[in-house]
Amino acid sequence: MSWKIISGKDKQTYNDFFFPSKLRESVRKFCAEQLAPHADEIDKKNEFPEMRDFWKAMGEMGLLGITAPVEFGGTGMGYLEHVIVMEEISRVSAAIALSYGAHSNLCVNQMVRHGNEEQKEKYLPKLMTGEHVGALAMSEPNAGSDVVSMKLKAVKEGNYYVLNGNKFWITNGPDADVLIVYAKTDPDAHQRGITAFIIEKGMPGFSTAQKLDKLGMRGSNTCELIFEDCKVPAKNILGPLNKGVYVMMSGLDLERLVLASGPIGIMQAVLDFAIPYLHVREAFGQKIGHFQLMQGKMADMYTRLSSCRQYLYNVARACDKGHFSAKDCAGVILYCAENATQVALDGIQCLGGNGYINDYPMGRFLRDAKLYEIGAGTSEVRRLIIGRAFNSMFK
């Protein structure tokens, strides 16, 4: 079946209220047919054999470069549309949505924002169609939240840089054809000595280790990247030399915004499953949803989801208008992530014993939700960002 969403050029024919609704409807139907039948097996087996076909289907639909310019094969939409797409994919499989976010935001968005014309023309079209999978590599075994302490080195030799070291916890690492990798080009300059490079699968000296066996987000392949005298052409530098921290941080707020939609999708999935269950399961002569304590659970889950969703959409709309706030981008993923974990716990409680067995998806929802309190900066780091933003107002 052929899929295609409305392009950004055609968006102007719809009003701002109607268009996101049509987009949501299209993505929801697409995921129900193409992804939902595989979601449980993806989690159980920690793999998605049909991943490449699904990627190309997303490319055909126009989802892989949703904020990328039309001239490079993107859809040319905004971040409100991006978070809606991410939310709907997460509602079906948070793991595959995470891989989607790593591709469409972490990789493609950085390429769009900082790539030169030659780089964009070379890499973006295949990333848009789904022929190539994208990734971003920032973290290392001893450099997670403290990312500027990274050890991966890039030493200039003629028209090349030779990379030695490794990266860890890299989403899409085992599958990626194109990766944006950060390395130290001036070890003595601390944060002013980091540079972003475009790495291609198959470059001599670049390899991937065995994928990680994670608690959640299973099927979103994650691994260690290994660089052993990997020669990278100097023309593959993304952005200015030694300005990698600027490249990195300029995209981090948008990364947090887009990934905050993952918890929204998970919370919606919990409600999709728990609410009907409460009105089928009977105890003491009535549906358990009619007990006041269960009504309280339903109310808590619903209000948590609704408040998180509105916060997310408000921040996305602000970003689309050019109003970027590190405080709110950190705040929205902090709030959504912690609420998603609580909603998943409440969902398990609603199902009682059935919530604790793997015949039901509640355990998957909880395991997947927890990742968002860790990735893209931990909850603790997000609180620091918000606190520092307020402190900076009183200097």
Automatic annotation (TrEMBL):
Enzyme nomenclature, EC number: 1.3.8.1, 1.3.8.4
Pfam families cross-referenced by the UniProt entry: Acyl-CoA_dh_1, Acyl-CoA_dh_M, Acyl-CoA_dh_N
Keywords linked to the UniProt accession: FAD, Flavoprotein, Mitochondrion, Oxidoreductase, Transit peptide
Catalytic reaction list: pentanoyl-CoA + oxidized [electron-transfer flavoprotein] + H(+) = (2E)-pentenoyl-CoA + reduced [electron-transfer flavoprotein]; hexanoyl-CoA + oxidized [electron-transfer flavoprotein] + H(+) = (2E)-hexenoyl-CoA + reduced [electron-transfer flavoprotein]; butanoyl-CoA + oxidized [electron-transfer flavoprotein] + H(+) = (2E)-butenoyl-CoA + reduced [electron-transfer flavoprotein]; 3-methylbutanoyl-CoA + oxidized [electron-transfer flavoprotein] + H(+) = 3-methylbut-2-enoyl-CoA + reduced [electron-transfer flavoprotein]
GO CC term, one of those recorded: mitochondrion
Subcellular location: Mitochondrion
Entry cofactors: FAD
Domain Acyl-CoA dehydrogenase/oxidase C-terminal as annotated: residue spans: 242-389
Xref: PROSITE patterns: ACYL_COA_DH_1, ACYL_COA_DH_2
Sequence intervals crossing the membrane: none
InterPro entries recorded: Acyl-CoA_DH_CS, Acyl-CoA_Oxase/DH_mid-dom, Acyl-CoA_Oxase/DH_mid-dom_sf, AcylCo_DH-like_C, AcylCo_DH/oxidase_C, AcylCoA_DH/ox_N, AcylCoA_DH/ox_N_sf, AcylCoA_DH/oxidase_NM_dom_sf
Domain Acyl-CoA dehydrogenase/oxidase N-terminal: 22-131
The keyword Oxidoreductase appears for this protein: yes
Acyl-CoA oxidase/dehydrogenase middle domain segment(s): 135-230
Record: active site: 255
Amino acids binding substrate: 145, 246, 253-256, 376-377
Pathway, per record: Amino-acid degradation; L-leucine degradation; (S)-3-hydroxy-3-methylglutaryl-CoA from 3-isovaleryl-CoA: step 1/3
Oxidoreductase in keyword set: yes
Purpose of the protein: Catalyzes the conversion of isovaleryl-CoA/3-methylbutanoyl-CoA to 3-methylbut-2-enoyl-CoA as an intermediate step in the leucine (Leu) catabolic pathway. To a lesser extent, is also able to catalyze the oxidation of other saturated short-chain acyl-CoA thioesters as pentanoyl-CoA, hexenoyl-CoA and butenoyl-CoA.
Name of this protein: Isovaleryl-CoA dehydrogenase, mitochondrial
Source organism (scientific name): Sphaeramia orbicularis
